[in-house]
Amino acid sequence: MHLQFLIKKKITLSFLILVFLIFCFLILNKALNMDKIYSPIFKNQKTTYLTNFKLPELYSYNQTQLIEVIKDKEFSIVNIWASWCAPCREENDYLKSLSSIGSLQIIGINYKDKKKNAIKFLNDYGNPFKYNLVDKDGVESINLGAYGVPETLLINKNRKILFKIIGPINNDHVKKIREIING
Fold first, then answer.
1. Confidence bin at 52 (pLDDT 50/70/90)
2. pTM higher than the cut 0.70
3. 21 lies in some domain
4. Distances (CA, A) of 95 to 23, 34, 74, 165
5. Same-domain check for residues 78 and 114
6. Same domain for 96 and 14
7. Which of 32, 113, 122, 141 could be 146's S-S partner, Cβ–Cβ 3.0 to 4.6 Å?
């Protein structure tokens, strides 16, 4: 009698463990198959405009409102970058080549980075940015529609996004940016 009780107890316990494991598997499977990409919902799908936000500057920590600096030039490039991003190193020379265009300014948004690493990156590879803002937690970059780093937006002074590059800038992108700026 005692032996039958122990066998029933083991079977019940085994059944409960099996049900628990199946439940965990189903939850994990559902989580793994969910869409993991967050992108902002734009109110006007035909024309996308840059949203406004404030971020601290890299060197001074003064809060800078993005829309205010966009007004300074006819065109602006907003480049989301990080010191830990290998493709950001590759594209830095292309950004520096674009910084010579008089009607264009380049604004960097340093993404989820340490200040000392970002400054070292700029010292080592050169600083193509007129403004360099810090997005410590990455929220504003995501609100801009960024999926990762590097990403680049060409914007006119009216905040209209003219061209978006996901990944590092290359020679073809530089040509396209120059074509857009020169009309």
1. confident
2. yes
3. yes
4. 51, 36, 17, 13
5. yes
6. no
7. 141
